[in-house]
Write a structure and sequence with these properties.
8-stranded parallel β-sheet; TIM Barrel; 259 residues
């Protein structure tokens, strides 16, 4: 049985990977990671991700969205461009969108307005949503609810929240995606959540070039090939056969993003 994985969230357009993207994708393929979703953080970044999807065919898909770090820089033309890209079949989700009250690179009211404007598109557009939420839980959940996204395909990427927060995701029909953080020795609560996650909702990502998992955590640049370490860790954590879990997670990712 040949098992392949999908990296559900990587930044192939980041400077740490963009200059070697062909080699990065080849190393991923050799490791058993056949497909990568490259996440757009701004209009320009999403265009670059779509260009990679065009260049590499089925191996790469893209998302389009304006990240909270970019919220204060977004012009009207950026919103128009992102909205147009969501009609492109190579673009599988709106994202990465949300709120970040840790860095506050944009004023919080601006972040909320930009997030809300993009969520409003989903009243007429049936697309999954990739959410960034850092120290902004209450406002993020409130805006998703206000825009009618309960029960819709929403994933909180790089989830490392509390068990209580994960219970909210389950109640709302939303997903959590786990990064290399779950492999860290001190990430006990995240590991407990990943162990209890329903098998048909389990999804993983590298968030490359960030958050390299154990046992390659010391490497500065994470990449999709390292997704295998997360998958094997979760198989051990859940007491599950690796190939069976990998097949399940691939099917989950295909279903969520409608690939």
């Amino acid at each position: 049985m040949t098992v392949t994985l999908i990296d559900s969230h990587a930044h192939l357009t980041d400077a740490g990977l963009a200059g070697q993207v062909e080699d990065v994708l080849e190393r991923a393929r050799r490791a058993g990671v056949e497909r990568v979703i490259s996440i757009g953080l701004s209009a320009a970044d999403a265009l670059a991700a779509v260009a990679l999807a065009e260049r590499f065919g089925q191996q790469v898909r893209a998302t389009a969205g304006i990240h909270p770090h970019e919220a204060a820089k977004a012009a009207e033309a950026d919103f128009e461009q992102v909205r147009r890209m969501l009609d492109d079949l190579r673009v599988v989700a709106l994202g990465e969108v949300g709120l970040d009250y840790h860095y506050d690179f944009a004023p919080r009211d601006v972040q909320r307005a930009v997030f809300a404007r993009q969520l409003a598109w989903l009243q007429e557009l049936d697309r999954p949503v990739v959410v960034h939420c850092r120290e902004a839980w209450d406002d993020t959940v409130a805006l998703l609810r206000e825009h009618g996204l309960s029960g819709r395909p929403v994933v909180f990427h790089c989830f490392s929240g509390s068990a209580e927060q994960y219970a909210v995701l389950q109640d709302e029909g939303w997903w959590a995606s786990f990064t290399g953080v779950v492999t860290f020795r001190r990430a006990v609560e995240t590991q407990q959540i990943a162990r209890s996650c329903p098998p048909d909702q389990l999804m993983i990502e590298t968030d490359a070039p960030y958050l390299s998992p154990e046992p390659v955590r010391s490497r500065r640049t994470n990449e999709p090939a390292y997704l295998v370490h997360i998958a094997r860790f979760l198989a051990d954590l859940r007491g599950t056969d690796y190939e069976a879990l990998a097949a399940q997670m691939t099917a989950n990712t295909e279903r969520f993003f409608r690939i």
